[in-house]
Amino acid sequence: MPALDECGGHVDPGGWYHWHSTATDIDSVYKNEHLDIECGIKQKASAMFAYAFDGFPIYGSLEQDGKMPAGLDICNGHFGPTKEHPEGIYHYHASTTFPNLPTCLHGVMAKQNFSTTAKQGIGSANGPGQGGGPGHGTPPGFDKAAKTLGVTEKELMKVIMDNGGRKLDISAAAKDLGVTETQLKNALPKPPRH
Fold first, then answer.
1. pLDDT-based confidence at residue 179 (cuts at 50, 70, 90)
2. Is the Cβ–Cβ distance between 75 and 106 less than 8 Å?
3. Can you tell me the mean pLDDT for 38-62?
4. Residues 58/91, Cβ–Cβ less than 8 Å
């Protein structure tokens, strides 16, 4: 993970500033950890703060009524009313745990949706959505896991998403891959510690 500012964001090598957590949620982390840091961006935890690459809006970790969202899919999204769309729209919610933002997309992502002359980052030839591997839309470390397990990155990610995504059923995923649970656990990258 690159160095992040106090609001949980940074400028990538392509020159695009983006968040890895929401301002409100990172302030909650600081408060919980008794850190005297404030992001300084006031925002409701139910507010829309971004659009995902598939065009669907991303809201904070709470619904408009202040309650936790229910019925979220593996991409941390669901269909329901929002302030901007009272008739209902598919939308994502930030989670209260790392990585906070959706780890997959429900909709279709346009190819070359950003462009840059930078060698890395969003929009570059090595950026998200431009293929497989680190910085290519596959989470870091999963390229090595796929190689270790003798499958493609696409096959590994499909098995992971089919078996719970963030809440992976290791036993079912191992069975689908034709490996032991121990082999799968040892191959998968360890989650970051925060």
1. very high
2. yes
3. 83
4. yes
Interatomic CA distance for residues 152 and 142, integer angstroms: 10
Instruction: Pull the structure tokens for residue 73.
Output: 């899919």
Question: What's phi and psi for 182, nearest 5 deg?
Answer: -65, -45
Contact of 27 with 38, CB cutoff 8 Å? yes
- Phi, psi at residue 93, to the nearest 5°? -125, 140
Of residues 12 and 193, the one with the higher pLDDT is 12
Q: How sure is the predictor about 71, in pLDDT bands with cuts at 50, 70 and 90?
A: very high
Tokens of 41: 């961006």
Beta pairing partners, 93? 59
């933002």: which residue's tokens? Answer: 101
Contact at 8 Å (CB) between 41 and 22? no
